């Protein structure tokens, strides 16, 4: 069973920022990491991913830069994204919000499954 994009929409930014906490990355790798971490239960659409990049960059949560695909300077230039201090604060805020959201929603879930 896959997760509906409507259900998870408010947490796309959180997932993207999580992937960027350790190191900068680019779109395809971020998408792949989200797919792996969710064990294929959620696949972020390309349009969703890039609109999130645009919104988060505008809000100052991430910044983009152009870099070569590999350290030797060979290969295709890619747009990479890195989390900012503001993005780290936003990520922490969204994590706290999730805990509260989960607590509230769980009150309406029956344990009959």
Describe, in plain words, how this protein is organized in 3D:
By secondary structure, the chain is of the alpha+beta class. It has a single domain, classed as Orthogonal Bundle (Arc Repressor Mutant, subunit A), CATH 1.10.10.10. The chain is about 50% helix and about 15% strand. The protein has helices spanning about 5-10, 10-20, 25-35, 45-60, 85-105; strands spanning about 25, 60-70, 75-85. Strand 2 and strand 3 form a beta hairpin. Helix 2 packs across helix 3 and helix 2 (about 10-20) crosses helix 5 (about 85-105). The longest helix is centred in the C-terminal third of the chain and has 22 residues, at about 85-105. About 15% of the residues are buried.
Brief characterization of the structure:
The chain is built from 5 helices and 3 strands.
